[in-house]
User: Fold this.
Amino acid sequence: MSICKYALLIARRHPFYLSIYVVFLSAMGVFMIGTTLGGDAAAPEDGVESYQSQIALIDRDDSKLSRALRDYMQATDELVDVEDESFALQDALATSQVDAVLIIPEGFGRELMDAAHANDELPALDVAFGDDIQASVLAALRAERWASLVAAEATLDADASEQDVLSAVEEDASHTASIELVQTQSGETPASKLEFYLRFSSYSITSSVVVVAGVVFAALAEPEVRRRQLASPVSTWSQGAQALAGCALLTLLVCVWVALVGLTASGAWPMLADAPVQVVLSLLALFAFALTPFSIAYLLSQLGLREEGLNSVANIGGMVMSFLGGAWVSLSLLDESVQAVARFTPTYWMGDAIQMLLGASQVTPELLSAVALDIGIVLLFAVAFASVGFAVARSRRAA
Assistant:
């Protein structure tokens, strides 16, 4: 059996790596298209409704102002009747019966009016938050807003009675902002989805190629296998070339799988007819990038790494390179120092080429020159790692 066929057989004997790194991570990229880019949000047909929190409002003051606050909160939130007892209140929060407990302390109404007239700090409600912190904070802010309106009206007219203040507050609270719901169309296109998927695929390709190809290279570098190869009539150069050809074929198959999944998941198949040059060159940039993890796999195997080490390097390296390529967070949102570091990774230049191609309305000589430069830089990374790998392999044979 030729070494090339034997390399494919070794890969087939590791179905777990193929299923996890090739199939599962590709499916994860499809999932990321839907969650990260998202879709058109469904707008409510009846307009915008205010969010209501479930609160337990305990009135220990029983004044005109506290009863008015209860009426206001009943209109804005859902009040849940809970006994004014420590265990009952704690149980309501612990079991998520309510989002928050608001307690109006005794003397709240009188202290609120006195603080307003004296331009002093307003009394606060006792608030206990539940599991939904946002709902709890929202309910507390509504109560504080109402108390602020009372204090403002009382400050404007020091001689006004509580009833006059409450009437003015009720009128002020009834004023709401005019809201017009505008439903926009999503800016997502098959091209943008394909671009995102190909960027994310830098992670799946790096992980799968480093592990799968690395396992094959490591198996062929075992001492017993090496002794059998040296005893065979096949030259050392031919043996190495066949091993590289077998792993290169594996790398090509991984890229073809990723490309097919990306074109299908993004709905970009029609682009092959409308913009074939952009799509083909984008996939070419992806294939050129795959040579980098291929070279890394060869280097790691020559350094003596086996399955455990290959898995560690593949996952950590794939995550870091995909992050610096803008697969997880747009590089424009990151610090300038991170953007500078990203330029020393092949994922940055691959992503730049894909972005220019899929974002262009037409192919121009300037575009082709810029893309050729990016792909050339990507290939230089592969050449650099491969050169180190060949040097290590030569030194091992000499030893």
Notes: DSSP finds 16 helices and four strands in the chain. Confidence is low (pLDDT under 50) at residues 40-45. Residues 365-398 form the longest helix (34 residues).
